[in-house]
Fold these 2 entries.
Entry 1:
Amino acid sequence: MLGELVAFAKARARRVAVSAACVLTAGLFAVFALIGLFAALFYWIAPQLGPIAAALICAAAAIILAIAALLPLMFRRSRPPPQPAPAPEGALPQLVALMAKTAPNLAPRQLIVAAAIIGVALILSVRGNKK
């Protein structure tokens, strides 16, 4: 059992590592392609407007692309908080029925403890229903 879990974890880690390496390689090539595009833009605009204006236009284009890449992060919907799991409807009556079945076999001190447990359960169930 433990060997199967370890083998599963190793296989999963290997798949994640291969995926991460592929994404990193693709990102690296995308960065080189983007650098090439900006260099081509610079050399295309530089003879007409001069090197300073070409550099500023390339920088403005990079800022616009960065803002466009971050727009989904800025405007994504926040996830609603997780809803608490509803309490089972029949838990308290089942507890009371179990206590009633075992009550004849309990000593007086045990009956007091059982009554205290039922009281705490009732208080918690009433507090949980206030919404």
Note: The CA atoms of residues 92 and 122 lie 8 Å apart.
Entry 2:
Amino acid sequence: MPHSYSDVHVSIGGVSLYASSAEIQASHQVSPVRSPGYKGSLGTIPSGPQQGSASFSFLGGSPEKPGDFSNPDLIKTLIKVGGVSGYGYPTEFSVSVEPHQVVKGSGSYVFFDPIVGDFGVGGATLAEVARNTIFDGGHGSFAENAKSSAKYSFSASWDAVRLMASYCPEHVYAKDAYEEITIEGDDIGGAIGSCKDADLGDCDDDCPQICMDEETLTFTINSPCGSYTQEYSVTGPVTQSKLSISAGGVLTGSITVKKFLI
């Protein structure tokens, strides 16, 4: 069954964060032991490996973005919450920011190894949140100090290879994974220039050119006193871009880049 917590400290990869909500659960597969001529069960035995999952909503901070997918051991993350711990693999992760607002984030993990410990409660207060909490509004090299909002997203799916009669995985691998950043804000037109010099042709051509120019989007979040900064950056093809302007207004727009990690 899932165990849910609110307003707790959690540890993600050794980094202490404040979670406004957290949920962790483990599942155990068991089968009955039966004997010919005997009605009922003589006991139970494991019939499959233990698996688990965890999900978090963060306020005032977020974990670091996942690392190198060429080695799953580098992605494997130690999760601690409510008196239990286990090594999980990130399946969903996002960070959203708005100018001069507290950073919000979320994360989900899947466990193939056993979750150990005693389920309990670890408390926290909002006053203890003092890490990377404030987004100061700039978006990389495109428009310094422009008002903007940004969101970093990550998604992956995982599977495990196990040997017969083994409850621990022999190998864990990612089946797919990608990350993307979307930035919306004022004076963002300079960021939406991908393929502006290309002769794209049109659909009447036998083989019109397809634009796969890459852009790099970056945003940084800071602690209130500037003692800690964390950067999120993605380089990849532009998957969405738009501009809008109204009479007497300023040029506003949005851009999204996406990178497939495997």
Note: The CA atoms of residues 118 and 167 lie 21 Å apart.
